[in-house]
Amino acid sequence: MSANHFIHQSAFHTKTLNLSPNSTKLLLSKFAHPLSTTQITPKQCSLRAVLSQNNPSTTITSQPKIDNFKHCFTKSEDGYLYCEGLKVQDIVDTVEKRPFYLYSKPQITRNFESYREALEGLTSIIGYAVKANNNLKILEHLRKLGCGAVLVSGNELKLALSAGFDPTRCIFNGNGKLLEDLVLAAQTGVFVNVDSEFDLDNIVAAARIAGKIVKVLLRINPDVDPQVHPYVATGNKNSKFGIRNEKLQWFLDAVKAHPNELKLVGAHCHLGSTITKVDIFRDAAVLMVNYIDQIRDQGFEIDYLNIGGGLGIDYYHSGAILPTPRDLIDTVRKLVLSRDLNLIIEPGRSLIANTCCLLNRVTGVKTNGTKNFIVIDGSMAELIRPSLYGAYQHIEMVSPAPADAEILTFDVVGPVCESADFLGKDRELPTPERGAGLVVHDAGAYCMSMASTYNLKMRPPEYWIEEDGVVAKIRHGETFEDHMRYFTGL
Ligand SMILES: Cc1ncc(COP(=O)(O)O)c(C=O)c1O
């Protein structure tokens, strides 16, 4: 893109853009939602870069049914996609690099609030699963809202500490935690889940090195089928995670044998991800509370029940009613209160997935044999869920198609040199023009955090729309120069 600017005018907005590839401060646009029910006052909106502290040298049906639920991305009757009242096409035209991730900060807040409200009346920790999305700005925002953090590596633990999370509201999970990471966990005082016999040995060793007693929860595998894709099922008996329930006594004896290293404070389970039936959580909670009774019977004073994460979201945008955080919490509330327990939950996807889209541009359209393809600049490198799990993520155009655009069935594919490189299959869409904006929805969780640089497609920048309509950069896009730095001085 040229170093400057253009002036674009339409019936709905006036925008002046002054932009260079290296600019960190991108300014201005004025526009208002044309179909807004309130008076149409052009809203001053600016796109600016927030300089990261870490300047780079992160079967299902409808959205959570939340009282006064409001989704941030809406297709208006004018055929344009809006996010928090801003026309997404204008943002696509303005940013310095595509594809890019675009989040709604107010939607993150709304999602968190729905959990917080659901948990009223219980003593609880909402531990955000950092693996879902590790953007530092998002972590800081969630921490300010009151979240704890759930971590699965030493680096996630370091990141959570950098984002200011209170270690006593953090939980360190994992089936292969490394000794050095466990030492950091012991030093900082986070809860640690015990996953296996060797994991317990390592936690004991870490406690000795740190000179601290580690507060541990036993990750018990309740053997409940979460009825999800096998890649995201974690709580069945053949899973690599957690301890088999029949080995519980061995672990209790091992904890008893290490009073100077371990303090057992609770029990944990995580069934899987994209779960759409709350009965599954209740079945697991009933089993877990029974284990807690057995553990207490042996004299352990344990207070915490951690039921993990896993609530699904409306990837299909089909309008079906999915369980809300309130449905989830209500299904375990009585059990938790009956044992006077503190409840820990570990949501990732349901906090962050629907707050974000991946914004792409159409490179071209082609037909081979009986297949039509829309080729976009985004790919499996930026967003791998469809290729990895065959996951469905809703796709639509950002702006109305020309009146004569033929509606066809397309595979939406990227430029990566793999036939597995697709973002969507068999999607009915108007034949787009080159350069048209195309959005992949619900890209807040397990998308940027799973992005790679395959084919040397560098990880994309991230932006969010703030409460006042400002579009701010929350992560720089990676560059070729970043890649070359790994080889300097060798
Ligand atoms: C232990 C643990 N807790 C929490 C989560 C978050 O799950 P979700 O993003 O489905 O809420 C995961 C993800 O699989 C996990 O492994």
Strand percent estimate: 25-35%
For the biggest sheet, the summary is: 13 strands, mixed
Report the mean per-residue pLDDT as an integer. Answer: 86
State the helix count.
Answer: 12
Class per helix and strand makeup:
alpha/beta
- Write out the distinct hetero groups bound to the structure: pyridoxal-5'-phosphate
Helices and strands, with pairings:
Elements: E1 7-9, E2 13-18, E3 25-31, E4 43-49, E5 73-75, E6 81-83, E7 86-87, H1 88-94, E8 100-104, H2 105-118, E9 124-129, H3 136-145, E10 148-151, H4 154-162, E11 170-172, H5 179-188, E12 191-194, H6 197-210, E13 214-221, E14 243-244, H7 248-256, E15 262-268, H8 278-297, E16 304-306, H9 325-338, E17 342-345, H10 349-352, E18 356-368, E19 371-376, H11 385-389, E20 395-397, E21 407-413, E22 422-430, E23 437-440, E24 462-465, E25 471-475, H12 480-485
Parallel strand pairs: 4-25, 8-24, 9-10, 9-17, 10-11, 11-12, 12-13, 13-14, 13-15, 15-16, 16-17, 19-21
Antiparallel strand pairs: 1-2, 2-3, 3-4, 5-6, 6-7, 8-18, 18-19, 18-23, 20-23, 21-22, 24-25
Helix pairs in contact: 2-3, 2-9, 5-6, 8-9
The chain binds pyridoxal-5'-phosphate.
Residues 129, 132, 150, 173, 234, 270, 273, 308-311, 346-350, 445 line the site of pyridoxal-5'-phosphate (PLP).
Enzyme class: lyase
Catalytic activity: meso-2,6-diaminopimelate + H(+) = L-lysine + CO2
Pathway: Amino-acid biosynthesis; L-lysine biosynthesis via DAP pathway; L-lysine from DL-2,6-diaminopimelate: step 1/1
